[in-house]
Design goal:
- Keywords: Aromatic hydrocarbons catabolism, FAD, Flavoprotein, Monooxygenase, NAD, Oxidoreductase.
- The radius of gyration is 21 Å and the shape is globular.
- The chain starts with 5 loop residues before the first strand and ends in a 14-residue tail after the last helix.
- It is α+β, with helices and mostly antiparallel strands and 407 residues long.
- The longest helix has 30 residues.
- The chain has a single domain, classed as 3-Layer(bba) Sandwich (FAD/NAD(P)-binding domain), CATH 3.50.50.60.
C-alpha cells in the first residue's frame, strides 16, 4: 500500500455511495491507495439479494487485485464448461471448455457463486479495513461540489463532505441522476430467479456448468452453487405486459405461460422452485461522459446491463480496480484520475452493453434466425472460442488502463 497522502495533515477522503459489490470493491481499491472512505448505504443492513452469478477470469483478476481472490475461490464452484442448448429440440449448440487450457489462456478460472457469497468475500475485507467507515440506513438526496470539496446530503438532512464522491448506488442511482439525468431503457424482458436444492434438481441436469437453454423469446439457465448443494435457476421471457423497471414476487403460473413448446428436459425445471423473484430488466444507452469534477460513477450506476453475458458484477469489479489504478497513475489528483478512469471504462463497458443486447437476440431467436443461430459455431475449435473471448476475459490489472485488449 502506498503511503497515505495528506491534505492539511488529513488523509484524502472519498465518499462511496452504495454498499453492493461495486461499492465495496471501490472502497477496497481506494484504501489500497491510502485514501479514507466513508461508505453510505441506504439499506439497514449491508447485504445482497438475488441468487447466483457467474465470474469470468476478468472478475478473478479484479478480485485478486483487491486481495480477496483466495476467499472468493473458497466459496465458488469452478465449472467444466459453458454450454448452450436448443430448448426446442434439446440439441447442443455450443460447448466451451473452461478447464486447464481455458485457465492457462486467460490466467484464471470460470466459476459460479451465490451473490451473497461473493458480496461477503469482499465485505469481510472491508470490515477489517481501518480506513473504511460505514453508515447504513442512509439514502442520498443530493450532491454538490466546489473546486475543492464535495458534499452529499441524505434524506434526513445530514451532510457528508469529502475530497470526492463515487456513486455506486445501483441501477436507480441518485448520483447518476445528478450527473446525467438520462432515462432507463426498459427492455420488456422479465427475469425470474430461484434457488433449487440439489435433491430437488433433476439428476440429468446436475451438470457442473452454466447451461443455457435457448428458446423462442425465452431461455433458461441453471448451474450449481455452494459445492453443488444448490442449483441456481434463471428463466427469462419477453413480457406481454408494459413493464416497469423493478423487482417483485413472481408466480409459477406466469412462468409456465411463457414456456410453451419447450422440450420436456428443460421444461421440467419450471416446477421445481417453491418461490420466485421477478425482475423487469432495463439497461441504459452508453454515454460519452460519466462524471464531472470530483464526481464519478461505477457499476450499475454507470453501465446497467442485461444478464445475457453474465458480466454485470464482473464489470463493477473491473471498474473498482481501474479506479484505484487511475488514482495511482495520476499521483492522487482525484479529478484527473476520475477522467482517466472514465476514458477507459466507458468504451469497454459500452461494448459489453451492446454485445449483451446482441446475445439476448441470439438466445431468443426463432424461425430462420434460430436455424442460423444454431449454425454459427459449427466446426469451431476451442482455441477459436478463446480467441473470440480474448477481448472480454483478457482483462487484467496490468492492462486495465490501456486501450482495447488484443488477442
Amino acid at each position: 500500500m502506498n503511503a497515505t497522502p495528506t491534505v492539511q495533515g488529513a488523509p484524502q477522503s472519498v465518499i462511496v455511495v452504495g454498499g453492493g459489490i461495486g461499492g465495496l470493491a471501490a472502497a477496497l481499491a481506494l484504501t489500497r491507495q491510502g485514501i479514507a472512505v466513508q461508505l453510505l448505504e441506504q439499506a439497514a443492513h449491508i447485504g445482497e439479494i438475488g441468487a447466483g452469478i457467474q465470474l469470468g477470469p476478468n472478475a478473478f483478476a479484479a478480485l485478486d487485485a483487491l486481495g480477496v481472490g483466495a476467499t472468493a475461490r473458497q466459496r465458488a464452484v469452478f465449472t467444466d464448461h459453458i454450454i448452450m442448448m436448443d430448448a426446442v429440440d434439446a440439441r447442443e449448440v455450443v460447448r466451451i471448455d473452461t478447464g486447464d487450457a481455458f485457465r492457462e489462456r486467460f490466467g484464471g478460472p470460470y466459476a459460479v457463486i451465490h451473490r451473497a457469497d461473493i458480496h461477503l468475500s469482499i465485505l469481510e475485507a472491508v470490515q477489517q479495513n481501518p480506513l473504511i467507515r460505514f453508515r447504513t440506513s442512509t439514502q442520498i438526496a443530493s450532491v454538490a461540489q466546489d473546486g475543492k470539496r464535495v458534499e452529499v446530503t441524505d434524506t434526513e438532512g445530514n451532510r457528508y463532505q469529502a475530497d470526492a464522491v463515487v456513486g455506486a448506488d445501483g441501477v436507480k442511482s441518485v448520483i447518476r441522476e445528478h450527473l446525467i439525468g438520462d432515462p432507463p431503457r426498459v427492455t420488456g424482458h422479465v427475469v425470474y430467479r430461484a434457488v433449487v436444492e440439489r435433491d430437488n434438481m433433476p439428476e440429468e441436469l446436475r451438470i457442473n456448468a452454466p447451461v443455457l437453454w435457448a428458446g423462442p423469446h425465452c431461455h433458461l439457465v441453471h448451474y450449481p452453487l455452494r459445492g453443488g448443494q444448490q442449483y441456481n435457476l434463471v428463466v427469462t421471457f419477453h413480457s406481454r405486459e408494459q413493464e416497469q423497471w423493478g423487482v417483485r414476487e413472481g408466480s409459477k403460473e406466469e412462468v409456465l405461460s411463457y414456456f410453451q413448446g419447450i422440450h420436456p428436459r428443460p421444461h421440467q425445471m419450471l416446477d421445481r422452485p417453491t418461490s420466485w423473484k421477478r425482475w423487469a430488466t432495463a439497461d441504459r444507452e452508453p454515454v460519452e461522459q460519466w462524471g464531472q469534477g470530483r464526481l464519478t460513477i461505477l457499476g450499475d450506476a454507470a453501465h446497467p446491463m442485461t444478464q445475457y453475458m453474465a458480466q454485470g458484477a464482473c464489470m463493477a469489479l473491473e471498474d473498482a480496480v481501474t479506479l484505484g489504478e487511475a488514482v495511482k497513475r495520476c499521483d492522487h489528483d482525484l479529478e484527473a484520475a476520475f477522467r482517466l478512469y472514465e476514458s477507459v471504462r466507458i468504451p469497454r463497458s459500452a461494448r459489453v452493453v451492446w454485445s449483451t443486447r446482441e446475445m439476448g437476440r441470439l438466445y431468443h431467436a426463432r424461425g430462420v434466425e434460430r436455424t442460423v443461430r444454431n449454425m454459427l459455431w459449427t466446426g469451431r475449435g476451442q482455441s477459436q472460442f478463446y480467441d473470440a473471448l480474448q477481448w472480454l476475459y483478457g482483462w487484467k490489472v496490468e492492462n486495465c488502463l490501456a486501450g482495447p485488449i488484443q488477442p
